[in-house]
Amino acid sequence: MTNINTACVKNNASYQLNNALPNKETISSNFCERLAQWGNKSLNNGEERAIAVERIKEAYNSNMASLDLSYLDLSELPPIPSTVNTLNLEKNCLTCLDFTDNASLVNINLSFNKIKTITFPNESKLENIYIDHNNLENLDLKNQHSLVNLEAQNNNLTKINISDSYKLKFLNLDYNKLASLDLSRQESLIELSAHHNMITDLILHNHPRMKKITLNDNHIAHLNAKTTTKLEYLNLSNNNLLPTDDIDQLISSKHLWHVLVNGINNDPLAQMQYWTAVRNIIDDTNEVTIELSYNLAITNIDTSDEHLVEVSENSEGNHIKDNDSMSIRYRSKYYSREYALIEEETIFSDAELKAILPMHRMYGVGDYKSNSSSLPSHSGLKDPTGTPVCYYIHNEDKPSLGFGPISNNWLSQSFTTEL
């Protein structure tokens, strides 16, 4: 074993490493040689490599635990001092990585590279791995018992092995090509995001800490998820879900506040067979947001008590029954604000239109008419400042609710309706 004194890099430049103290942790005798060989490679990024060598030298001499080698256009992994437990290699051009000799690593950032293959040390101390935006097809994390957070979104993953990562709390696998996902051993999971994959089978057993599940845009027909009693957020939009007791149990969480089931064509779900479970949630919470959007054929929603529900971009929907204390909020697909907008093409029944008396009506484009009656205060049609707003009708045969305050600047405002 020896301390490093010198590392030679491209163009015969020499980097002195003589600040290392004899009583510091020493590195194997071949480290200096490997660092010099890596720095002397005849590649176009000689300047960046020189910067990398300088930083590695500093990390060693100062016994640093953190090493930043990001944004250096590196195509090969340099030797890493054994003192380093946090390594940042973000935004390089790395393709093949082998961390077998880096057992001290705890945190590693490999985002935005071109990685196709990677090997981690067996039973390492790794807790946080950021490997998103790469070209991985297979990610094997066998024996990674310490792993807590994994971000592997935006790869080409068809296989992933995290069976030994039983401490995993946060998992992001968005935008991959996974067809199945077994999380039965990840009982510590708090947040799971795997949207835009090709998942048909998903196993979720015994996840008492799970708070957020985002699985939209997959091919999930059956979701086996039990004991997710702390679930707060659920997005199952654009799947092939079939009605099962497991889904019913999943959305019956007493903590659930936001449910998205947009774009589901299945008739039983479209008719909201699970609304009973969601009503149970509403009864126990102060505010619940439920989005039923796009091609959902919701026709009747019966709610009660003073709670908030959001019905956005509902293509069919339209008969909302309540006990005069239910606040219904409509969110426009064209705007995103703290206060919701009523979407122009949202259709309402005659009874609903009469419940919100207009200040202005419009019959056809450019044909503007004004109603002399004042907007009743009980209609609840107001912008965020409390200013009354109006609605308009494009076609009397097919009424659609418009939006805007009683002014020329009506398109810039938003409001909520209270029926």
UniProtKB/TrEMBL annotation:
Record keywords: Leucine-rich repeat, Repeat
Classification via Gene3D superfamilies: Ribonuclease Inhibitor (3.80.10.10)
Upper classification of the organism: Bacteria, Pseudomonadati, Pseudomonadota, Gammaproteobacteria, Enterobacterales
What one GO molecular function would you report for this record? signaling adaptor activity
Q: Which species is this UniProt entry from?
A: Escherichia coli
Give the protein name, as stated in the record.
Leucine-rich repeat domain-containing protein
